[in-house]
Amino acid sequence: MTNPILKDSIIVADSVDKIYPNGCHALKKVSLNIKKGEVVVIIGPSGSGKSTFLRTLNQLETISDGTIHIDDINLTHKETNINKVREEVGMVFQSFNLFPHKTALGNVMLSPMKVLKKSAKEAEAEAKDLMAKVGLADRMNNYPSHLSGGQQQRVAIARALAMSPKIMLFDEPTSALDPEMVGEVLDVMKSLAGGGMTMVVVTHEMGFAREVADRVVFMEDGELVFEETPDRFFESDNQRLQRFLGQVL
Fold first, then answer.
1. Where in 53-157 does DSSP place strands (E)?
2. Which CATH architecture has domain 4-246?
3. With 0-12 CB in 10 A as exposed, 13-18 as middle and 19+ as buried, what is 84?
4. CA-CA distance, 137 to 130, in Å (whole number)?
5. Do 193 and 39 touch, CB atoms closer than 8 A?
């Protein structure tokens, strides 16, 4: 019989612990369920475990205890093909990690051709559509060195979308950008959210959290301290949360 929590949620993290070999207890019994099409924003101070937790959702970080299910697949089961799961979980990092010797279009085409075995013609057609979707139809033949940071991050988003993921993970995608470039990346993310993409976003952009998130999660010292809808979240009297918000707002 299917666990009703697994049936209703596309991401189920249950009592996730992460202890590094040096003894650092990065995650402490973190549990979080995310439904299909939901946008969950994770905030918290540096070192709170939020990026570590995000990376466990595609097993870029292995866990010490607990379980994580993605679309009913147990990521920690020894027979799980984690590379197959990763095809459906796109991730965008702080750094853009684009191949400098390939054009923007070439960067977006690469994974569908290598991993999904699509033809160059099919991959190119889909990549052009995605470049237009992120507002870069006129930059597809540019190399990364000729793109601004905001443009490179939008290419990175298009590259992740090229795998047709069910889930998108964003690890502080605007933190490396100049302030004037932040808006263009957030606009693309807002568009994705509006289109029904399941998204988990680690960010310090409180305006984005207020406007786009279905739920906001606060982490501190490796613990999931508090979660709520944005309107209730920012009005909460939780002392740990308010102490943090007082420093960043």
1. 65-70, 73-74, 89-92
2. 3-Layer(aba) Sandwich (3.40)
3. exposed
4. 8
5. yes
User: What mean pLDDT is reported for the chain?
Assistant: 95
3-state SS string for 194-248: HCCCEEEEECCCHHHHHHHCCEEEEEECCEEEEEECHHHHHCCCCHHHHHHHHHH
C-alpha triplet 58, 174, 181: angle, nearest 5°: 145
Q: Residue 47 gets which letter from DSSP?
A: T
CA distance to 16, 18, 19, 26, 221, per residue, from 23 (Å) = 16, 10, 6, 9, 14
Under the banding of pLDDT at 50, 70 and 90, the label for residue 1 is very low
The rounded radius of gyration (Å) of the Cα atoms in the chain is 18
2 band by pLDDT with thresholds 50, 70 and 90: very low
pLDDT > 90? residue 59: yes
**Are 185 and 201 a contacting pair, CB within 8 Å?**
no
Q: What is the domain partition of the chain in residue ranges?
A: 4-246
In the block, residue with structure tokens 């960043």: 248
| In the predicted structure, residue 239 carries a pLDDT above the cut 80 | yes
* 226, β-bridge pairs: 218
Residues 67-125: tens digit of each pLDDT: 999 999 999 898 999 999 999 999 999 999 999 999 999 999 999 999 999 999 999 99
